[in-house]
Write a structure and sequence with these properties.
This protein is mainly α. The chain has helices spanning about 20-30, 35-45, 50-75, 80-90, 95-130, 135-145, 150-170, 175-200, 205-210, 220-235, 240-245, 255-285, 295-305, 310-345, 345-365, 380-420, 430-455. The longest helix is centred in the last third of the chain and has 38 residues, at about 380-420. It binds phenylalanine (PHE).
Length: about 450
């Protein structure tokens, strides 16, 4: 499990042991509530196929290059996300990329843990059989009852934080990763099953048209920014997660190929979630633009139409919770590794402090649908603000800075050297093109989309 690189021989770090392990762990970070919850709800709220198309373009032109660069920097420095820049560019302010990343990690966890809380609550609701229904009024009421109750919202969030804390403190995250690895294919299969059921519902074709027939009149600069933000969020990039995971990559791992595989698998899971949800949305007469509740009101309706639907629903939410756990562990890895490697705290100390801080900040997101519903900044509840601020500002900003660092400071020679594994991979041409994209195309695109989407011009 130890890295053997001579430059870090003095302080060996844990690393991924096999090439498949690397792929699985990276995918474990990428696949999560972003696929099952966020992708469908944003696609529904932003007009369907047109949004999907922009999201695909953003993933290819921006997401993939940023992901490759981020992993590369992490593997080269073999340090946490702040330490990486202190090592690669000592005495410069580039380490701020890592600093923004820690902030983003906190804000993402603040609302992500609440969505995970809903998933956990739904595991129990499905066990009790109280959520299964194909009556839209009933499934919406069941969800509203949960999120409008401040005590339940808080307690389920704390349950999530305690669970995650337990996993980290017991040092079993490796074990959890192993379990996640085995269960991911199950989630995939279940999504296919639900998708097929959903497609067989009368009126399902309207859902397919919504998902695959673009209506370009619905694409505004705000929609483009949201799609780009989703691409960052989905691939766990722009905040140091991939950088930190990159620091555990093996030196002989083919980074561009791994990133391409992770991106493709991640897109596939999102598409499956979309196909499971949208045909049902239209068949049952739900509103595609229902927002964050979409998953929770639609899925019970599909399961209500299936034999053993109750049982399947329990399994569905358990698998979703497990996918969310892999993602949350990777988000927390950013502040925990910075606190322990920069400030010399023990990992246990770093974990406990991070989670306590999260319980505080997270409460404002947890209560956003109840007692704090009227407490708004920039017209948004704290839940929505944390979500928008991270996906639409902090992650893209991190992306721009990562590209600029690589394109203008790191330079083409070291870029080619690092990504060809010192010349052992025959990918020179590809890397030359990728470097130009990283230096010019991605940062400019991100900047324009961000400024335009935020209404700067
Ligand atoms: N990619 C994860 C998901 O889709 C969320 C995430 C964002 C994880 C940022 C790590 C960093 O659920």
């Amino acid at each position: 499990m130890r890295q053997t690189d001579a430059s870090v021989a003095a302080a060996p770090r844990d690393g991924f042991s096999s090439s498949f392990g690397v792929l699985a762990a990276t995918l474990g970070s990428a696949v999560g509530l972003g696929n099952i919850w966020k992708f469908p709800y944003l696609t529904g709220a932003n007009g369907g196929a047109g949004f999907l198309l922009v999201y695909l373009l953003a993933t290819l032109l921006i997401g993939l290059p940023v992901m490759i660069t981020e992993i590369m920097l992490g593997r080269t420095a073999k340090a946490d996300s702040v330490g990486t820049f202190k090592k690669l560019a000592p005495g410069t302010p580039w380490w701020l990329i890592g600093g923004f990343g820690v902030l983003a990690a906190f804000l993402i966890m603040a609302f992500y843990s609440e969505v995970a809380a809903w998933v956990l609550a739904y595991v129990f609701k499905s066990l009790a059989g109280s959520a299964l229904s194909s009556d839209p009024a009933h499934t919406s009421a069941a969800f509203d009852q949960l999120i409008h109750d401040p005590l339940q919202s808080l307690l389920w969030q704390w349950a999530v934080l305690v669970l995650i804390g337990g996993i980290l403190l017991l040092g079993v995250s490796k074990g959890i990763e192993a379990v996640t690895k085995k269960l991911m294919p199950l989630l995939f299969i279940l999504l296919v099953v639900v998708g097929v059921r959903s497609l067989l519902l009368p009126g399902a074709d309207a859902g397919l048209r919504f998902l695959f027939q673009p209506d370009f009149s619905k694409i505004s600069s705000g929609v483009v920014l949201t799609a780009m933000g989703l691409a960052f969020f989905k691939l766990s990039i722009g905040m140091g997660t991939m950088l930190t995971y990159g620091s555990y990559f093996r030196d002989d791992q083919n980074i561009p190929a791994t990133a391409l595989r992770v991106m493709s698998a991640d897109l596939l899971v999102s598409m499956l979630a979309g196909i499971a949800i949208f045909p049902a949305v239209f068949a049952f007469g739900f509103a595609p633009a229902a927002g964050p509740s979409l998953l929770f009101i639609t899925i019970p309706a599909v399961f209500a139409q299936m034999p053993f639907g109750g049982l399947f629903m329990v399994v569905f939410f358990v698998l979703t919770a497990i996918a969310a756990t892999g993602a949350m562990l990777s988000i927390l890895e950013v502040p925990v590794s910075v606190l322990s490697e920069r400030l010399g705290w023990s990992r246990a100390q770093a974990t406990v402090c991070t989670l306590l801080a999260l319980a505080l900040i997270g409460a404002s997101a947890a209560l956003s649908n109840s007692v704090l519903a009227d407490f708004k900044w920039f017209g948004m509840t704290m839940f929505d603000l944390f979500d928008a601020l991270t996906s639409n500002v902090l992650l893209p900003l991190g992306g721009i800075l990562l590209c600029l660092f690589t394109g203008w400071v790191w330079g083409p020679r070291r870029f080619a050297d690092a990504l060809s594994n010192g010349g052992t991979l025959a990918n020179r041409r590809l890397l030359a093109a990728l470097f130009l994209v990283t230096r010019w195309v991605s940062p400019l695109l991100i900047l324009v989309v961000m400024l335009k989407g935020l209404g700067a011009f």
